[in-house]
Amino acid sequence: MPYRLGNIFRTAATAVLIGACALIGTNIVAQADSNIAGKKVIFVPIAMGISLTEGWARRMREHAAVHGYSLDVRDAAFNTATMAELVAKAISEKPDVLVVHNPTVQLLARQIKQAESEGIKVLQINLQSNQPSAAFVGANWERIGREIAEDIVKECGAGSGKSGKVAIIPGQLTAADSVIMNEAAFKVFEQHKEIEVVSNQASDWEPEKARQITATVLQQHPDLCAIFGHWDVHTMGAGNAVKDAGKADSVLVYSTGGGDDVACKAVEDGIQDRIWSYDADGQGRDAGTMVDLLLQGAATADGSMMIVDSPMKIIKAGEGFDPSLCWKM
Amino acid sequence: MNSTNAANAAAMTPTPRRGVGRKNMLERVVAVATLVLVVVFSFSIDGFATLGNLRVILSNSASLAILSCGMAVVIISRGLDLSLIAQMVAGATIFGILISSGVTAPAALLVAIVAMVVFGFLNAWLIAYVEIPAMLATLASSMFLVGLLRFAILRGEFLLLLPKSNPTVAFLAGDIVPGISMPVLLMVATLAATWFLLNRASVGRVVYAMGDNFQAARLAGLPVRTSTIVVYVFSAVTALIAGLIMAAASGAVDFRTVTNGTLLFDVILVVVLGGIPLRGGRGGVRNIVVGVALIAIMRNGMTLMDFTTQTQDMLKGLVLLTAIVTDNYLNPRDAETDTVGDL
What is the arithmetic mean of pLDDT over B312-329? Predict the structure, then answer.
């Protein structure tokens, strides 16, 4: 509980700080220009070439251009060994801020600690490591896991007339989002004994693996009520398997994602039913603002991590479907 | 003797003792292991022994079987095609981009086939005429192909989404008649084409001769270079077929299948487990079927038992090791089998 209160306090403090900057916008920008121009920021994402990271990079580049600091993007191309090497090289270049996108909770923990000890401020984006750092901007995975699980209980639980059977398709069992969402979801399901998780198998983020898992599970459990995919991209495969099996009307497909126009298209086409979007475009803007603040020396009073939780948008199929909830690159 | 006569002479020689005798003990071990697994899973897993699950097994293993046909033919000729998965993704990307931009399905298919034939030819040219070892030539061409497509055509994107609303995509993933899907039909057609190539076409005899003793085949005047072209073009076309059905079924062409996936190892695993030695010269369609059957049954059973992906990988590796050790015990190496590249 004290930890959670601390988190809430830090989130509120960061939000107030960002809000204050926005209120006195022009003065801050002018002041920031003189203070942070010429500084160096390195961003190491898991991979470029996906809407999520391209959306973040676009907004962060805008901030860099406005304030006159440099932003280098180093693409790890989904290769964890390459990523560790790129982060090591980035640390050796002594940037003012290092932005990392952790593939697992453990992979970059030691390097984040090393960077911080060498005076490099580390901003973790969307996926958090076990190792705290100067700041985190991203989705609140506990909230997403809990909210989706509660929605599944509402749709498939007692009184719904459904089987209560749920299949979960994480990306990787050690990825931060998968770990936290599964913990939160299982906490909810444990209070509702009518919900049965019949499958919990990682797809390695690949649509084809998600499709094969779903096709097999649907065969064993034709009365499956819901699928909870941890990323909208690999959940495309699961949704297609549901559609091919002719069960699009009886199986609800849930996922989470950055909320670009592809997500809205998937909902429109009936491939997925409900997507909890953390709005990658907005996250990119938040990350850019946080980099600006870090370059200006912003920090919490006790040196703990500054946290910005991304606001949620829920994209739902049916009458309330709103394509304006999605953003386009 | 000119090359045509040599090929005819090769065609008239008795078929090598493929699929029989001590040399194919691994195939028998794997076939027995598959049967044991089927019996155990039937009694222990709810929903395993059903017609519906058989359809899922066939549908899920179609692309693996098709890719294994291409790889098996290459390996029998004492080659190796490490660009197989890159070609699969490349073919599906070309087809996907064309149909998404409004090109008719037959025209898109024709362009994709031509592109794959050209790519297979280039691989074969590097191997047969420039005389670069197959492993290095196909590894380099795989990197080149993926880089070219990602940055020149997809502009850095990792994924190409194919909407099911497109009738061609729906056709490639759907049922031809109730109970028989297009992927399964294409798998059967590819297995039949592989059987024909290896057993009825004269190039098939040359392929076995190349695998048995490449230098002897060349010195005997057999058309080893043109046969290499046939082998790698065949492999490229099987990759295209597998790519089309995989992309249509999952609604996405995913380049991570090449860069991070384990599909290439699965394909080699199928070929080796089925009893086709990496040094070539032996094996056939029956070996491919046996290898695919074991992997498909294992994957299906483990998914039904809700095993994690890591556990599944570990068990697949354990099965491979067990099969090879058993084969080594039952079929000890001798002066003939203990050659470079032999397993």
Answer: 80
